[in-house]
Description:
The chain has helices at residues 8-19, 61-70, 125-129, 146-160, 169-178, 196-210, 255-261, 323-338, 361-364, 392-407; strands at residues 2-4, 25-28, 39-42, 47-50, 56-57, 76-77, 82-88, 94-99, 189-192, 215-217, 223-227, 230-235, 240-242, 249-251, 271-279, 290-294, 300-303, 308-313, 347-357, 377-379. It is α/β, with parallel strands linked by helices. The chain has 3 domains: 2-38 and 60-76 and 194-269 and 361-411, FAD/NAD(P)-binding domain (3-Layer(bba) Sandwich), CATH 3.50.50.60; 104-185, no CATH class; 271-357, Polyamine Oxidase, Chain A, domain 2. A hairpin with a 4-residue loop joins strand 3 (39-42) and strand 4 (47-50).
Amino acid sequence: MTVAGAGLAGxxxxxxxxxAGLEVAIADSAAxxxxxxxSYDDPQIGRMIDNGNHLVLSGNQAVARFRAAVGATVxxxxxxxxxxxFLDLADRTSWTVRIxxxxxxxxxxxxxxxxxxxxxxxxxxxxxxxRGGEGRLDARIATRGPVWKKLLEPVLLAALNTAPGESSARxxxxxxxxxxxKGGRMMRPLxxxxxxSAAFIDPAVDWLARHDSPLALGRRLRAIGFAGDRVASLDxxxxxxxVAPDEAVVLAVPSWVAAGLVxxxxxxxAFRAIVNAHFDFAPPAGTPPMLGLxxxxxxxxxxxxxxLSVTVSAADRLIDTEREALARIFWADISTxxxxxxxxxxxxxxxxxxxxxAATPEQNAKRPAARTQWxxxxxxxxxTDTGLPATIEGALRSGEAAARLASGxxxx
Length: 412
């Protein structure tokens, strides 16, 4: 079996295939595995940092399966309860939404646990959202009021990486069904400590190597040769290499790369950016691990033991802003939020213009299935039709789905 791409989707597929007892060759064009979920030693800030602050939830089952399969021991850190802290920089009000563990949402009946200024009736529209359906979210729910402004909008923006109002109601329902509808036990926010690579990528690469499936880096798939209803060859830059009749290929590359390799493949073609900032400054005592900001440019502050980080979703408006200007804007938000009076520390800005597909109804409809018209070619990636937005959980599930199909393709 061949897996092209060593992001989380490709690693997930390779681990699942090897766990099933199949020989696997996995390659990636980059100098390191992980794709968008990677860590590196940044000389500007002088620390190991993540490419982005990727959040997972305690109920993410594919995350749990993947980490268990590769023996990942680096913990995912977070609060013991599903507590989400917020601060409005406009009026300096702060609150924490505390979602109870069980699926019966009694937290919305407790003023101390729900959004300040909200009433029990304000949460009733959420029931309708759980049913999903086609169309935009703002055609299904009023995008105003305290629950929207102080909880739904910032959380859904982070989950969908698209302005929530224009986002797919179907994808929104999928997010809500797997999180808030299952209760706080399943939606505790978890962050990789110390890094994403240590929590996900390094254990997977090491596991594959121990199981005779080493990763080949700097190896780009240039072309795919087709014959009839199957992939007949792969060209890695030195000419076509035949694909055995019983061999399957999992294509786990970015959507635009896949579209250039597979004739007629329809994929999402509109994207949203993410901007992350990292600061060489230890968080003040009492800083929550994750703090949502309202009426600020910075949307989420992540507190690590040795640094502070910021994430802004659907950040297309910031992509062309000068880097130091962004750093100063974010540091001003952090300083105001955390009561810091220190000057701008060492910093790094990481911008991804095509971080995820736009989670609109139109783009969601373009997501292809894992199975293709060629009987031995299967797709993996958070841009495939996982039923979820582009998340770590979705990427891992896509790899599992592609591996299941690839494992059985010879008998299909």
